[in-house]
Amino acid sequence: MMELIYFALLAIASIISGFLGSLVGLGGGTFLVPIYTLYLGVPIIYATGASLISTIATSSGAGSAYVKDRITNVKIGMGLEIATSGGAIVGSLIAAWVYSHHLASIIYIVFGIVLLIQIYFQLERSKFEIPKESKPDITTKIFKLHGEYYDQALNQHVKYYGVRWWLGEIIMFGAGLISGLLGIGSGALKVLGMDWAMNLPMKVSTTTSNFMIGVTAATGSSIYWMYGYIQPIIAGITALGVLLGAFAGTKVLPGMKNKTIRYVFTFILLFLGVEMILRGLGIIR
User: Where are the domains of the chain?
Assistant: First the structure.
């Protein structure tokens, strides 16, 4: 009976994580790892492994729905995915070394810092519903970094141009490295790379991130599987729950305002970031 209750809690946590992850482009892993480790007692090694598998499920579910709604910019996502995949391989190898040397507390602290860094940028960008138009640069023209989507909340078509492709690629490599290291889709950094560095609208950034995270997670999860860091039962329950939550999120996001998404994103980053750092420092158990 206790095991059934425990698995039910895992399922509920994964559904909530999938829902929130699909709204803000994080893939659910950013929420799963802290919830599993802080409240459900799952060792961080297995939590990150399950998170990677669930991230693939989120990307398959939410990502496909957003592509159908024509909010996702597939061309930009595919171009940036090259850098994240390379970073994911490097990050996964680093994670294997860290765990083998029993330095998991470092993972907690790094995770928390990564989350908190995002808050400043999100508050700055929350002043605008649609980003201020940037003048197309040479990368905009070469890689055709532009697009258009219909915003239900604003009841209008939004045209946009991406800039600073080179800066986006650098951030994406870092996002992939964090993904492999922490067992997440690194959606927070992907959103940052597209939203802040490339000046894309928030909805385009989050939906394109959802599209990309599956490939990044699949790259890292192969190495996690090789080292035995993926527990099949936990990963299976997590993937199913996250997928259900992600589908629910896709029905809600199109009608939300960009500012609302940012505020939800910021609050969650603050709460989880502080808790992970405290856990890494041994202040809470």
Answer: 2-281
Mean pLDDT in residue range 125-141: 68
Q: How does pLDDT run across 163-189, given as a tens digit for each residue?
A: 888 888 888 888 778 777 766 656 667
**What integer is the mean pLDDT of 115-142?**
70
Confidence bin at 60 (pLDDT 50/70/90): low
Confidence of residue 37 (pLDDT cuts 50, 70, 90): confident
Instruction: Tell me how far CA of residue 90 lies from CA of 3, 81, 154, in angstroms.
Output: 36, 15, 41
The answer to whether the Cα torsion of 262, 268, 193, 51 is positive or negative is negative
Neighbours of 43 (CB within 10 A): 15
Distance CA 65, CA 213 (A): 14
47 close to 58: Cβ distance less than 8 angstroms: no
Please, what sign has the CA dihedral across residues 149, 127, 170, 57? negative
How far is Cα 134 from Cα 226, in angstroms, rounded to an integer?
Answer: 45
| Interval 225-254 mean pLDDT | 79
Section 219-243 average pLDDT: 77
DSSP labels for the chain? -HHHHHHHHHHHHHHHHHHHHHHHTSTTHHHHHHHHHHHS---HHHHHHHHHHHHHHHIIIIIHHHHHTT-S-HHHHHHHHHHHHHHHHHHHHHHHHHHHTT-HHHHHHHHHHHHHHHHHHHHHHTT-SSPPPPPP-HHHHHHT-EEEEEETTTTEEEEEE---HHHHHHHHHHHHHHHHHHTS--HHHHHHIIIIIS---HHHHHHHHHHHHHHHHHHHHHHHHHTT---HHHHHHHHHHHHHHHHHHHHHGGGS-HHHHHHHHHHHHHHHHHHHHHHHTTS--
